[in-house]
Amino acid sequence: MKKVRNRFDRFYQTFILCFKLRNKGISLDLKPFFSDFEVLMCVSVHKCRQFYFHMDFVSELWHLSDFTLDLNYKKSSASYYIFLFFLSSANIILQENESGRAGLKSDLTITCCACDESISFQTSANITKRGKSFDVNKRAVYHSLESGTGYEGLASFCGIMNMPCMSTSAYQKQVDSILEVVEDYTKEELTQAGQRLRKIVLDENPDLDKDDTLDVAVSFDGTWAKRGFTSLTGVVFAISVDSGEVLDYTVLSKACQKCSLKQSQCEGDDERFQEWRREHLASGECDINFNGSSPAMEAEGASILWRRSIELHNMRYKWMVSDGDSKAFNTVENVYDECKVIKLDCVGHVQKRMGKHLLNLKARTKGKLEDGKPIGGHGTLTETKIKKLQKYYGLAIRQNTIKKSNPTDREVDVSIYTMKKNIIAILNHSVKTQDPAKQHRFCPLGETSWCKWQQDVTTGTKTYKDDDCLPEVFLELLRPTFMTLIDTKLLERCIRGTTQNPNECINGTVWVRCPKHKHHGAKVVRYAAASAICHFHKGAECRNEIMDKLSIPGGSHTTHSFRLKNNKRLRKANAQATAMEKKRRQGLQLVQTRREEALLEIDGPSYDPGGF
Question: Which candidate in 105, 141, 206, 382 could, as Cys together with 174 as Cys, close a disulfide (CB 3.0–4.6 Å)?
Fold first, then answer.
């Protein structure tokens, strides 16, 4: 303890020296050498000896306005016991004024028993000019919203840390203020995304004027807060195909927590409830903005976004990439009087149709084929073979798409013809025949062909093996399925090679912030959707800008943490996008499928709902 007391004496002498140097225009930074705790103790102990320090100078050197002290947390550290030693040796009492407690913020007072001098300080600063909103409370609520833990998660954390937690009403007030700021920030981001897209389209089409209403392609999809199509809340996004950024979104809700609470308080008095609800609706606080069925939310959301596209961005969403599992396209097809919306299909969803058709064919075909063998089993239409044919079908489409926003009719016709030829080549290539030349006549020619037989013909080698081919009887069996999936209208909708992958990505980002296995009100879902857009555009570093707008600016550790998170995400994405990694994942998937098929064959039927 003697060494510690000497350290405080040295600190005090150093402080006096700094104060004298400051009066001469020389400033020193002692922050790296002495802790906030030592500064506070030196000021407290020496004040009773009539050394009246300039507290603004102390704050200037050590930023005491940012200093927080949590005794329950500090009990495990040596500093806490040193602190108690000086409190006892200097006859100083540390007390908390419980009346000044506000959530996670505490009001502490240090009193000297010898001279009755006291110093009061708060563990967190007030960040509003009117009212009370403390820094630590807003940071805690912002984290609970970003992490998806909500109030229950915050209360659980405070309980484990032996800390007081804010009330639910105080928490909801913080949610309201944070939601307002984040939604305003998101609106600015959507406006900027529209401007960036306009620049892309105008650069590709110099004949257009900057004030013209532009026609753009967007991918559209909806997502719900609960599985099973009984959700009370849903979100829809419209994402640009050309820029990959969100252009617009909306949240649809069939429930309002305030309405539910008031209805229970009215105890069946409908007249009283309806009178209150009219005032509630007039105030604009009701969260209910949709009264249809949950599956209909997607179509209603599409109608909202398409009707305000010209007002918001001076653009028409002329091309709509959708999965075809709702009436969204039928709802917006004629929303523009002078322009008809054109539907584009997601290549990923179209590719899955091959697998679905083949599985249905396998389920419908009973008994044995003409060669006396069943349709399934080793060397026939196994699940592994179905996945391969599905993959080849998707590649035949993707390798012949057109990236131009406005292709000519000639370019479209050539692209569709090539798609059809490659898809038919897949059928013939996969079925073994007695004449290899006939079997591979549709396969690409040359040394660079994906067909090993054509490579051997060009190079004179013998690397091709037909062990993986289906028996000849499958040629006519699979032909109707392939002919259905080379329909011209279907392939025309795939001509841009667009997918809904961005929509699936942002949908997942939303439900990270409000997990589907928990109930969340409309406000939390609104926050999650707005925050997801910010992260989708700018990554984790957008939190710095949002925190500045919330008056809870981050520090060096905040910036470092967000930068590390972004770098980790980018490294992972870049690694997954390489051809080698894609090939590794595909190979691993095939190995797992084959292993599972072998195990099922060994074990036999072991699970069937209601089958045992």
Answer: 141
pTM beyond 0.85, yes or no = no
CA distance 45 to 86: 8
Answer yes or no: are the C-beta atoms of 232 and 253 closer than 8 Å: yes
d(CA 414, CA 398): 14
- Joined tokens for residue 54: 């300039």
Distance CA 319, CA 447 (A): 38
How do residues 503-514 score in pLDDT, each as one tens digit?
999 999 999 999
Per-residue pLDDT, averaged over 30-59, amounts to 45
| 184 in Cβ contact with 534 (< 8 Å) | no
- Strand, coil or helix: what is 136? helix
pLDDT for 90-149, tens place per residue?
567 778 888 888 888 888 888 877 677 788 888 888 887 666 788 999 999 999 999 999
Query: What are the tokens at 256?
Result: 């309002």
What b/e sequence results for 266-296 when a residue is b if at least 16 CB atoms lie within 10 Å of its CB, and e otherwise? beeeeeebeebbeebeeeeeebbebeeebbb
Paired with 61 in beta bridges are none
Domain layout of the chain by residue ranges: 2-122, 135-168, 169-254+290-344+499-554, 347-492, 568-601
Please state which of the ranges 10-14, 123-127, 326-330, 568-572 shows the lowest mean pLDDT: 10-14
Asked whether the beta carbons of 291 and 234 are under 8 A apart, the reply is no
| Residue 321: strand pairing partners | 219, 344
Q: Could you give the angle at which helices 522-538 and 168-204 cross, rounded to 10 degrees?
A: 40
Instruction: Name the helix (H) or strand (E) containing 79.
Output: helix 78-89
CA dihedral angle for residue 317, residue 409, residue 322, residue 583, rounded to 10 degrees = -120
The whole-angstrom separation of Cα 253 and Cα 35 is: 51
Please give the structure tokens belonging to residue 498: 């667009």
